[in-house]
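Subgroup meeting minutes
Present: P.N., E.W., G.H.
Scribe: E.W.

1. P.N. recapped why we're keeping a running log of single-chain structure predictions: easier to compare across weeks, and new members can see raw inputs and outputs side by side.
2. G.H. added today's entry (470 aa).
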Amino acid sequence: MRLIIGGAGRVGIALAKALASEKYDLVIVDHDSRAVANAQSLDCLVVHGNITSRETLLEAGIQNAAVFVAATPSDESNLIACSIAEHANSNKDGKDGLTSICRLRDTSFVGEYKEGYLQEWANVDHIVNPLHGAIRRLNAGLRSTDIEEVISFEHNAFVLEFDIGESARNIVGRPLRDVKEDFVHGLPNIVGVKRDGMKSFIPNDDSVLEPGDRIAVAVVDVDQFNPALITFGHEVSYFPEEPRVVIVGASSIGTKMAQDWLDHGATVTVLERELHLANQLAGSKIGGHPKMEVIHGDHLDRSILEEISIDQYDVALSALDGDHANIAAVLMMSDLGVPHTGLMLYDADLVKVTQRMGISFAVDRHRVAVNNMLTYIHQSLSGHYALLAEIPNVVGITLQVTERAKFAGKTLAEAQLPDWMAPAFIKRMSLDGSWESLRPDAEQLLLENDRMVVFCLKDRVADAQKKFKV
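Output recorded in log:
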């Protein structure tokens, strides 16, 4: 199965590495000789050429490809490449069709996609807007400060990573079979465990958890974040339904952050030191929102922060150009009493550093883009879905319920999945054509063409695929 990645930048390389252990015929295309040289270390075919060139795509084998990912920094190049890729691929007889995934930054193109136009004139099946995904992930993570990592699986499905707290006395030291009997509505769904000095493992009914274990918990809906944390021994800080949010910077990123919080009922204040940017935002449609306030002033000036009663805000975010400037801005607001602070960072190495500084939650925007691309790849192809951040060797896999697998029409209990495989979600297409995520309860009926997201150790991937007749 051939999969072509257009663009060998940070996102393209990270995506290739995430797919490296899968049995795909992987190809990377880039016109930059330095990027091509960097990609040579990967176990894949690397083609030096422009992704908007039909000849280059044919050299990469587009006519035999199942998936094409356009991941360059240029929206225009990505769109043109998707259109050419679809046309070149359509000449192949007896094919199932090409799935095209396009990285886009411009909101006007995102609007075109939502209206269905990109599929019509550029043959784009899925888009990945890194900023939108990062904002959504950041907002989810800020609601529960003890979560170490939030991995979005789209359609309101998430995997949370955190340690078991000391107060989870009714959970630890007992077989999970006995623990489950204490929960009328079901124990939160654990899909992976890492214990100091031991290899990661997939828990089964005989497993016994210990304080300090790092666990991965699959949940459907952000409302389940806090119940999962409480179950496993964490005290959850209060997060208001209509929070007060302060955002540093009236850039396009700051504006998008503000819009997302306003859409979720928050009251938002934007601080901007450049007068023309403050005026521009204040005069825009979003600037006229009744819960929106734009203030011209220096965010590092304590007198201004005290004047707006910064200690009365619930969330502080920063949308400046540099990672270090963003860190400095939210640290000051944290020192002045804001309980929840969040960042979107370019440098992945700084994410862990900011946690040690006391910043509530940080997101690596490039990793979000890669995870979203993996999401769409595996809606069409079975395979790895995501790698857990702190639980090594445990991977998520998407497997389709087909007639060959003989699971359709059975409950999950009747399917009798092996105990080395932990079901996380069932993905199902509703009548209106949208996907929904379901909790994998034992009595949940499986339907043909459902996608089941399961977790297992890397060395059991082939076994999992055989189970589903892949």
